[in-house]
Amino acid sequence: MVQEFCDFVECARFNELEEMKAMYVNPIEAKDNRGNTALHMAAANGHIEIIKYLLELNSTKQFLDAQNDNLNTALHWATLNGHVDVVSRLLKAGASVLIKNDQEKTPFYEAENRGFAEIVSLMEEMVPENEAEEELQKLGI
């Protein structure tokens, strides 16, 4: 079963949607040896069709906000790599922009820090105003 979980995650990494569909794996349970789910891998690599498929299978907060061994969520990875369409899809599904990783960085912080204005705008729409202001103050903005 462990190998099947890793294979599922690798399919997400390499955009192998049809192979994923042939597997009968619970996406929340399938993780690689670093704690990444298929959602992490698809988000990191900008594979929007895989994201859509995974969210059809499971769109719970537990899955959306699952953290890997470095406490990054799929939204962290999509943000770090500037995948606007993936960030948008994850936000619409309810992913949190304020979860901190092991470096105490939120996806919101990463977007602002990297100058991804379009992603920052998307996130500001999803974050309560007082929380967004608090994040911006931490950045010195």
From TrEMBL:
<keyword id="KW-0040">ANK repeat</keyword>
<feature type="repeat" description="ANK">
    <location>
        <begin position="34"/>
        <end position="66"/>
    </location>
</feature>
<keyword id="KW-0677">Repeat</keyword>
<dbReference type="GO" id="GO:0004842">
    <property type="term" value="F:ubiquitin-protein transferase activity"/>
</dbReference>
<dbReference type="InterPro" id="IPR002110">
    <property type="entry name" value="Ankyrin_rpt"/>
</dbReference>
<feature type="repeat" description="ANK">
    <location>
        <begin position="70"/>
        <end position="102"/>
    </location>
</feature>
<dbReference type="InterPro" id="IPR036770">
    <property type="entry name" value="Ankyrin_rpt-contain_sf"/>
</dbReference>
<protein>
    <submittedName>
        <fullName>Ankyrin</fullName>
    </submittedName>
</protein>
<dbReference type="GO" id="GO:0085020">
    <property type="term" value="P:protein K6-linked ubiquitination"/>
</dbReference>
<dbReference type="Pfam" id="PF12796">
    <property type="entry name" value="Ank_2"/>
</dbReference>
